[in-house]
Every structure is written in structure tokens, then in C-alpha cells.
Amino acid sequence: MHSSLISILLPVYNAGDYLAPCLDSILAQTEIHWELVAVDDFSTDQSWEVLQCYAAADTRIRCYPNTTKGLIPALRLAFQQSKGDLITRMDDDDLMPQAKLAILKKTLLDDDPGCVATGLVLYFSDNELGEGYRRYEQWINYLALNQSHFSAIYKECPLPSPCWMMRREDLLSVGAFDSDTYPEDYDLCFRLYQHGKRIVAAHEVLHLWRDHPHRASRTAPPYGDNTFLELKLNYFFKIDYQPQRPLVIWGAGRKGKAAAGYLSERGISFYWVCDNPRKWGKSMYGAVWQDYRVLSSLKDPQVIILVAAPDEQPVIAKYLSEIGEQGYWFC
Question: Which of 223, 254, 280 delimits the end of a domain?
Fold first, then answer.
């Protein structure tokens, strides 16, 4: 079983000088039972030529030109061309620590089917690393160390897109890359959650995540609104919403208003609370802002928290704990 072939899916677009180090880090893996299926997504630099050069030198590497522009079509094509029992992803500007594939494989195969293996990540940059990336690294590694990924799924994507491995049949069972929804990694994570898959994490750094000005998460239109609120709400109503329970939106800022508009458009009734007395009694979308303490009078409410201010979140969490609630943290 441990000789199972790993298929590494690698979408490539204008990777420039980052591509060769990425490929070299794959070639340096201690695990040797792998194939690399790279798809060039209409690059205008030398990425295609680099891929062809590496493919000519190692038969485990195959490269294909994409047939339809986009990351999701590239992933689909790579998956269609893959042959492995185990599937993982890689980004064209990142690096693999030498034991990454070996540790992910062991973590996965030591557990039962229905699980996804991951590990810790480390951001790096040729320039100064942004504080937001440092916070995300700390947050996602905390989830891995505590095996609590899905507890925070509505906050941000809790599974690093280039640092997971799963059995082919498990990926197929959640629709693989059939969905057209971006961000594709977050959508896949929600589908894993929806289908009851488990995430198991090794406690080693298994991915070196490069930050640079041209990363897709910084420049590609699908990632422009990094709140991904509609995606979160869509899956909340598919997976966790219980219509017999009172639904509460907590937050009077931009995100709270956007969520209220979403619910209003769909005819979903809700309470709207905040901690700003100047808002209480005012209305929008047919709902009236109320004192957050109304929560204590509601029976078993489902509370969606849309307050991003770091100093306010602990206060909200403390109050919810006092009344025996947890809430769904959307930011």
C-alpha cells in the first residue's frame, strides 16, 4: 500500500524564475513514487519551455498546455491526466521541504479512508513579509496543531491549498475539480466538510509558501474580495443552517450589511444585533438593529458573527460563552 503512486497536480502561469526552484524541490523529495502532472495556463513567459525541459529529463514529469484559460480548468486537466492513487497539489512559485511527500503519504495512509492529510506551513518572501500573511500562518498552523480545522471553516480557508493529500476516491466523492466556484481551494474545503471528511495534520512544516507581488491571491480577480462572504453563506445554508432555530446576524459594518442583504433577498428571517447603541432601533433590509443582549432571550439561536475588529472579538466570544453559545465566526 505504501508504494501507492502520488500524483502532484501543478497549474502553471507565468511562474518566471520561481518555477525551476519549485520543480527542483519536487525532484529532491525523499519519496520517489510520484508523478508530476503540470498544466501550463497560457503563460506568456518561458514557463512552458521550462516544463518541457524538466519533462525531457525525468519521465515522472508530464506537461500539457491548458485548453481553457483558468486555474480550475488547469486543475481539471491535470487530474484527468493523473494516474496516482494519492492526489496532492503544488503551486508553481512555492517550495517543498524534502520530506513533504513522504510525511503526507504516511500521515494519510496511517489513517482510514475519508481523511485528508496536511501539515504546517511557513511563509517566506524575498521582501518583507506582510503582517496579514504572518497572522494567517499562525492561525492555520494553530488549527493543524490542534486538529480543529473545520471548527473555523467560516472564518477563512483552514486547509492550505498546496499542502494536502487525499486518496483519489475521496477526492472524487466530493466532486474533485468539477465545481466552477472560486476560490477553488476554499470551495473544495467546504465540500470536504459537507461530506464529512476529516483533516489529519502532521506537526512538521511541509510547505514553504512564497509571498510576492504577483501571486494569484494578490492579483487574480476571483480573489479580489477576500471576505468570500457569499461562498460562506451559501455553504452555511447547505450544511449548518437549522431553520427551526432563530438566526442572528451580529455586526453593523460592511460585512454585516452584506449578509443582511443576502438574507433579505432570499426571504430568510433573522435578528440583527450589534453593540452600538446609536444603531439600535434603526432599520435596513426590513430588519431592525437590536441590543446584542436580546440573544439571552432567544432559544438556541444560530449566531453568525461578522465583526472583524480584533479588540471586539474576545468581548463577543466572552458574552456568547456566558450565555452558553459559540456562534459561527465569519471573520
Answer: 223
Read off the pLDDT of residues 213-246 as tens digits, 9 standing for 90 and up: 777 765 666 666 668 999 999 999 999 999 999 9
pLDDT value at residue 1: 40
Residues in a beta bridge with 199: 116
CA distance 152 to 302: 15
Full-prediction pTM beyond 0.70?
Answer: yes
Q: Provide the 3-class DSSP secondary structure of residue 136.
A: helix
Per-residue confidence (pLDDT) for residue 213, from 0 to 100 = 77
In terms of residue numbers, what domain contains 247? 229-329
Domain match, 14 and 136 both: yes
Domain count, the chain: 2
In order of 40, 68, 188, 196, the CA distances from 156 in angstroms are 28, 28, 13, 18
CB 196 within 8 A of CB 114: yes
